[in-house]
């Protein structure tokens, strides 16, 4: 029995010793394996990052070349297409300097004359307008539907460049304006952030804007509403509801091109956003230029 007990104890000791040795060896091998795997993964990821950076650099180079090409091609595409046409800009609420610059840059090679820039006071001074215009519109602060009617007549007279109502209401209607005014051949419309009506306020903003746009759209002059590609709250649906051509990316060369051809009579919603029907209109050319 003593021999069996000693044999059994020795056997157990051998088993535990083998387990210990196995654990030590396994831990050593496992550590090396994990370390090798980590190194390989790191090298692979580093290679992927370098490849991605190289590809991004190549794409940026291609993009810069395309941008340089379009900027150089733009004057040749639109040069003198609006020669001697009188263009006005009407902004609802405010006119961001970035959009003003985009519109000016777009018109620069076309030969157009930018004769007036006006910013409509939003919200409107309804009582002040009622006091300036004909007795027909007295008390309209209590009936804002009449304010829309007034806005439509003012919009038409803004394009015509004259009219007793417009002359009487001008200083109250506009927050600021510049230029010589007069009869317009085309109008660029802008709706600044402050021009978007507050749904909780019944202050006449919606009515005066709707009236002005309807009056301009029905005046016979070509009109186009523009915004930048980074505009957070688009006004394309608002202007499109009056069948006014729209451009949602006037900061891009394609948007500037679309704006110019909309002023030539192209109709539709152009740009890069989901509201656009196409990037560009058919490239119209005035008849007198086509005959040269």
Provide an overview of this structure.
With 292 residues, the protein is of the alpha/beta class. The chain folds into two domains: 1-78; 79-290, Rossmann fold. Helix content is 53%, strand content 13%. It contains nine helices and seven strands; from the N terminus they run αβαβαααββαβαβαβα. It has helices at residues 2-78, 97-107, 126-132, 144-160, 164-173, 205-217, 236-240, 253-263, 287-290; strands spanning 86-92, 113-120, 174-179, 186-191, 222-226, 245-247, 269-270. Strands 3-2-1-4-5-6-7 form a seven-stranded mixed β-sheet, with helices on both faces. Helix 7 (236-240) links the parallel strand 5 and strand 6. Helix 1 runs parallel beside helix 8 (253-263), helix 2 crosses helix 8 (253-263) and helix 4 (144-160) packs parallel to helix 6. The longest helix is centred in the first third of the chain and has 77 residues, at 2-78. The chain is elongated, with a radius of gyration of 35 Å. The model has no long low-confidence stretch (mean pLDDT 85).
Describe the structure concisely.
By secondary structure, this protein is α/β, with parallel strands linked by helices. Helix content is 53%, strand content 13%. The protein folds into two domains: 78 residues; 212 residues, 3-Layer(aba) Sandwich (Rossmann fold).
Give the strand tally. 7
Average pLDDT, rounded to a whole number, is 85
Number of domains: 2
Q: Low-confidence spans: pLDDT under 50, at least 5 residues? A: none
Euclidean distance between termini CA atoms: 123 Å
Largest sheet: 7 strands, mixed
List the total number of helices. Answer: 9
Given helix and strand content, the structural type is alpha/beta
